[in-house]
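Bumping my old thread because nobody answered last time. Still need a sequence for this structure:
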C-alpha cells in the first residue's frame, strides 16, 4: 500500500476516534448510532495507524506531503 495520509490528517482521525469512543463508553451515544460510532472510530483508528485510506485512493486525494523526484 502506498501512503496517502499526512500527519495532520492522522491526528484529526485519531482525535475523532477517541471522541466517538468516549461518547459511546459514557453512554451519551447508544443503540444503532452508538454501534455506527464505534465502527467509524475503528476505521479511523485503523486507517491512521497504516497511513492509508482506500477512499482517498478512489477520490484521488493525497494529504501526505510527497517529495518531488
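Sorry it took so long. Here it is:
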Amino acid at each position: 500500500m502506498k501512503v496517502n495520509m499526512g500527519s495532520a490528517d492522522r491526528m484529526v482521525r485519531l482525535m475523532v476516534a477517541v471522541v466517538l469512543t468516549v461518547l459511546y463508553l459514557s453512554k451519551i451515544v447508544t443503540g444503532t448510532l452508538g454501534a455506527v460510532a464505534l465502527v467509524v472510530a475503528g476505521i479511523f483508528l485503523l486507517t491512521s495507524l497504516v497511513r492509508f485510506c482506500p477512499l482517498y485512493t478512489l477520490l484521488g486525494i493525497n494529504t501526505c506531503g510527497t517529495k518531488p523526484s
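The helical segments are 7-25, 31-50, 54-59. Let me know if any region looks off to you.
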